[in-house]
Amino acid sequence: MDLELRHLRVVCAIEDAGSLTRAAAALRTTQPALSAQLRRIETMLGGALFDRRHAGVVTTAFGELVLTRARAILPGVDGLLADTARAARRRDAPGRVRIGSVGAPLLGHLILAVREVLPGAELTARCRNSPVPLLEDIAAERLEAAVLGDNPGQELPSGGGVELWPLVTEPVFALLSSSHPLAAREEVSLGRLVEEDWAVPRPDSDRTREYWSTVFAMTGGQPRAPYEAEGRQLVELVRSGLAVSLCQATYIEVPGVAVRPLAGNPLWYRHVLAWHREGPLAAYGDEIVRKVGAGYLATCAASPSYARWRERHPHSGQLTDR
Q1: Which site in 70, 95, 99, 168 is 20 to 30 Å from 118, CA atoms measured?
Q2: DSSP state for residue 262 in the 8-state scheme
């Protein structure tokens, strides 16, 4: 019998478990079968790897030598297998590209960009309120790309094989009922807005509420927030005049709702594109960024309040060069 990688994994599993019984359970085999396999491995290698005792097994000096080499070999082999699997996926045209997104105006533009660079792929998408699980999904290769976002001082961490590309940083605007007295103004003071009742999203791992609270504190107070809501429910609370809130600058006004800049631009939001460095979209990163950036500018033009703000602030809210 020749030594195989699976034999080294068995030896490592026995040492990790500390007993043949526990190792057998972890390996989904029986204790007698594992004991017999260990004897064959020891015969092949030429010495006992473990002393069998009533409380479990203890590694022999010879076993320490084998285990030291095994633990040096196995990570490299596992890395080789992972790299070749990724290379094989990149070699073949991907049958499906999975995209994630937070609540942002870029998802449609990203899907259209991916369709252009990979016309034969089937695209799927799922949305989350927080960017953190989406970032984890890309690192684990459960997603190929995502639209993410973060706030100043709370930037998303890089790593895990994920490429992050900050597309643009834009101001955060006020969301009001169109009948609210402040809606008649070109811009709204955050200090004045804090005096109102608020509708706010529930706290989650994107730390938006924490960021808002930090900026609110600079105005000398915290808003009363009797309503916790998101999406359509939040908009309806604002439309009815029960509350005010904040929104992305690209939010397009709907009947009954007004979007206004905040005086002094105290709050900012950064749009970020992400994909896996070893994924099928890595080779098209520059092209995808350009296409999504063009789509973002078209969205800006469709938001009258933000379009006017950009005219008054020509050096802010610009796309990041790539």
Answers
A1: 168
A2: B
Residue 55: exposure state from Cβ atoms within 10 A (0-12, 13-18, ≥19)? exposed
Distance of CA 86 to the CA centre of its chain: 20
pLDDT tens readout for residues 197-215? 999 988 776 788 889 989 9
Shared-domain flag, residues 243 and 174: yes
Does 259 fall in a domain? Answer: yes
The phi and psi torsions of 205 (rounded to 5 degrees) equal -75, -5
List the one residue out of 32, 66, 71, 31 whose CA is nearest residue 46.
Answer: 66
Query: Which helix H or strand E contains 14, and what residues bound it?
Result: helix 5-17
Residue 228 lies in a domain: yes
- What range does the domain containing 11 cover? 5-90
Asked if residues 83 and 141 have their Cβ atoms less than 8 Å apart, the reply is no
The reply to whether 270 and 136 lie within a common domain is yes
Q: What token pair was written down for 278?
A: 């070893």
**Which residue, 195, 189, 174, is CA-closest to 264?**
189
Residue with tokens 């007698």: 32
For residue range 223-252, what is the model confidence (pLDDT) as tens digits?
999 999 988 999 999 999 999 999 999 998
Pairing verdict, β 145-150 and 96-101? parallel
Residue 27 shares a structural domain with residue 82: yes
Q: Six-digit token pair at 193?
A: 């807005």
Comparing CA positions, the residue from 3, 2, 1, 31 lying closest to residue 13 is 31
Domain C-terminal end among 69, 90, 111: 90
